[in-house]
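Lab manual, section 2.4: Encoding a predicted structure.

Procedure: take the sequence of the chain (88 residues), apply the prediction step described in section 2.3, and record the output as structure tokens. A sample record is shown.
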Amino acid sequence: MLLEQLKELIDYGFVEKKLFEGYPLHVEYSLTDGQGRELFAGTKKSCKDIGIEYLKAQGKEALLIEKGVVRNNTYEKVGNLRRGSMWL
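Recorded output:
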């Protein structure tokens, strides 16, 4: 099932596959520079927005403020989050 989905993503130009010679078999999949990265950027933003709304609904605004995701009492989103935080 996973391989079928990866093949579809390759066919659509979102993912590229790199084969390495030798044993054991080694294959890497990565996003293409154009469509793949563009799709991921939109998905990442949507997931981030869903996460923010979920935490607000759970009454965890303090966590969002502490992480610098929103400003105090306004819930205005603040820039990009630093790498390594749980809010990528």
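Check your result against the sample. The radius of gyration is 18 Å.
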